[in-house]
Write a structure and sequence with these properties.
Blueprint: E1 5-10, H1 34-40, E2 44-50, H2 54-64, E3 69-70, H3 73-80, E4 84-87, H4 95-103, E5 108-111, H5 119-131, E6 135-138, H6 146-156, E7 163-169, H7 178-188, E8 194-201, E9 218-220, E10 225-227, E11 239-246, E12 251-255, E13 262-267, E14 270-275, E15 280-286, E16 294-299, H8 306-320, H9 328-346, E17 352-353
Parallel strand pairs: 1-2, 1-4, 2-3, 4-5, 5-6, 7-12
Antiparallel strand pairs: 7-13, 8-11, 8-17, 9-10, 11-12, 13-14, 14-15, 15-16
Helix pairs in contact: 4-5, 5-9, 7-9
Length: 366
């Protein structure tokens, strides 16, 4: 039934929809932005959009032909009473819209990542979602990527034995983009609880800094927060090496490496890996004592795009009552690790237990 679910979007920037203009026609990741994905899905209809700035709101309106626009998301939620809301604002401006939606009748929420700017905010978000029974997913898209799902299913079926370690190679910022790596590693391991974190962030003048001309945010000890660099709206530190220990005994090793995202899951009887940000998926299993005694199996995923799958997962939750793949409890595991990395850095790389005791550190990421 077309348009069965009324949708509203808060935030009319790149992931709200404008990113479509950056991706060539015919790319298998299309539809990628939220608006285009809702257009693609017959069961959903975008009835309104809101943005804090008039200029970008007008650009979005003209690009997609949306005429029902708001500068105040609260007014939009109160008047339109949508079933599903996408929140694509920067993470430092995300907590209040998420909580307001959850407390004012919205049944399902698709939030971009990072989730928010502090663990105190994350606790409030989790409480609002849980108390109001809101179906929730965030924009850690590889959880909804068909190829990575096949890889996770193969690991869960025992094709590489017991997972013992994960090597994750990429170099990126803590709040906006490391949710991709943290959520993916968690999913590939079966979403065990993280127990401890140890690592370092990149600072100005750091001997290891692949991009030494980058303006790195500074930590303000007096106010326990990271400060925006001149000319930047966000303060999102880049991350060096860090490790995460999980309840199942596996350890994740996150290695800053410029280039495409690669991940290797090392098991007791083999290895599962993806190269070049999901362009190749393969499993290798040992079959004897000789190094050449191995079998390999490539995975060839087919299906809809991660953004579409994320929305379909929300719809499934609305219709069946089943939890979403990336529900708020699963999301919080990665959010805890994000802030634990920062706390470890501030403690000189010392191991930090999860959940993190201090909920007040403020990192206004993108």
């Amino acid at each position: 039934m077309a348009g069965r679910y009324r949708v509203a979007i808060i935030g009319t920037g790149r992931m709200g929809g404008l990113i479509e203009d950056e991706i060539p026609l015919g790319d298998p990741n299309l539809p990628y932005g939220h608006y285009s994905a809702y257009q693609y899905i017959q069961e959903t209809e975008v009835v309104a959009v809101a943005n804090r700035g008039a200029e970008r709101l007008q650009r979005f309106s003209e690009r997609f032909g949306v005429t029902n626009t708001y500068l105040d998301y609260r007014e939009m939620i109160d008047k339109e009473q949508p079933d599903i809301v996408s929140v694509t604002t920067p993470s430092f401006a995300r907590a209040e819209p998420l909580i307001y939606c959850a407390e004012n009748g919205v049944r399902a929420i698709y939030s971009e990542k990072g989730l928010c700017a502090s663990l105190a905010e994350a606790d409030r978000i989790r409480d609002a979602m849980t108390r109001n029974g809101v179906a929730f997913n965030w924009g850690a898209m590889r959880r909804h990527n068909v190829g990575f799902r096949l890889l996770a299913d193969a690991i869960a079926a025992g094709e590489i034995g017991e997972p013992e370690a994960v090597l994750m190679l990429t170099y990126t910022d803590l709040i906006k983009h490391h949710p991709h790596t943290l959520d993916l590693v968690s999913m590939l391991l079966g979403d065990p609880q993280p127990q401890w974190v140890s690592g370092r962030l990149i600072e100005a003048g750091d001997p290891f800094d692949p991009e030494p001309r980058r303006a790195h945010p500074e930590y303000d000890a007096e106010n326990h927060r990271y400060l925006r660099s001149p000319g930047w709206e966000v303060a999102d530190p880049y991350v060096g090496h860090f490790q995460v220990g999980y309840a199942n005994g596996a350890v994740g090793y996150f290695i800053p490496h410029r280039g495409f995202l690669d991940v290797h899951v090392l098991g007791s009887e083999g290895t599962a890996y993806s190269l070049d940000n999901g362009l190749m998926f393969e499993l290798r299993r040992s079959t004897g004592s000789n190094p050449d005694d191995v079998t390999t199996r490539k995975l060839y995923p087919e299906g809809e795009t991660p953004t579409v799958n994320t929305i379909r997962d929300l719809i499934n939750s609305l219709e069946t009552g089943e939890p979403t793949r990336g529900n708020i409890d699963v999301t919080m595991q990665s959010v805890e690790v994000q802030f634990a990395v920062a706390h470890s850095h501030l403690a000189g790389g010392a191991r930090v237990e999860v959940p993190v005791a201090d909920r007040s550190l403020y990192i206004p990421g993108g």
